[in-house]
Structure formats: C-alpha cells, structure tokens
Design brief:
Elements lengths: L1 H34 L3 H12 L1 H10 L4 H10 L4 H25 L3 H5 L4 H4 L4 H12 L1
Length: 137
C-alpha cells in the first residue's frame, strides 16, 4: 500500500508540473500548429470552455498516452481544479496498474530472453502476459 500511495502522489505532482509546462511554455505552439488546423481540436477547445469538469474526466479516463492527457489538458483553457479533480480519481487506478505490471515483470532480462521449445508450450496466462509485455511497452 505504501508503494501505491507514493506512486499516486508522485503521479499527481508530475501531472501538475506537466500541466504547468504545457500552459506556460507550449500553449502558443500547440494552438498554432494543432488547434487552428484541426477541427476536432477546435471542437474540444470549445467543449472544454462549456463543460470543463466533464471534459477533464473524459480525457483523464481515456486510454490515450499519459503525455497527451497531461499536456493536452494543459494547453486548453481549463482550470487546474477540474484537471486535479479528474487526476485524483483516475491516477490511483493507473498507479495500481503500473505497480501490478512492474511486480509481474520482476526480471526484464527473463521476459526478453528467448524461449526454449519446452517453455514455448506453456499455456498459463502469466507466461503469455510476460511474453506480450515487450509489445505493450
């Protein structure tokens, strides 16, 4: 539980830092090169202004890369409170997921090592999950 709590806290701090970087350093670049050129980004930008909490929950709960969530919300006109509220709900789940996969793949050398013919016949779910981990990363 300690690892889960610490991971959740550090993920929240990293979220605040990435939103700050996006808001103060990357906002103009992203607006010029993405928001103005793509209609879907303009629609999301308008939706964020109308319903910030709903859009923050939708973005934070979606299965897109974390950098897209953090920096994407940072460049939009949405307050820190909706971003933080959504992050407080979803971050512990993602932290638990990362801890679980980290404990399941204790030895990365073992996971990436070539399999022998006898080991290739294993059909338990853990061996299949370990075999697929390099593809997921």
């Amino acid at each position: 539980w300690t690892a889960w709590g610490l991971t959740s806290i550090v993920k929240l701090i990293a979220n605040v830092v990435s939103v700050w970087i996006a808001r103060h350093l990357l906002r103009d670049f992203v607006r010029r090169h993405l928001v103005e050129r793509w209609e879907v980004f303009r629609l999301v930008s308008c939706a964020v202004k109308e319903e910030p909490f709903k859009m923050a929950f939708l973005v934070r709960g979606s299965m897109v890369p974390l950098c897209v969530k953090n920096y994407g919300l940072g460049v939009l006109e949405i307050g820190y409170v909706p971003i933080a509220a959504a992050a407080c709900i979803f971050t512990p789940f993602y932290a638990y997921q990362n801890i679980y996969f980290g404990s399941a793949c204790k030895d990365l050398k073992e996971v990436l090592a070539p399999r022998s013919a006898a080991a290739a016949g294993d059909s338990d779910w853990q061996s299949k999950a370990k075999a697929l981990m390099p593809l997921a990363l």
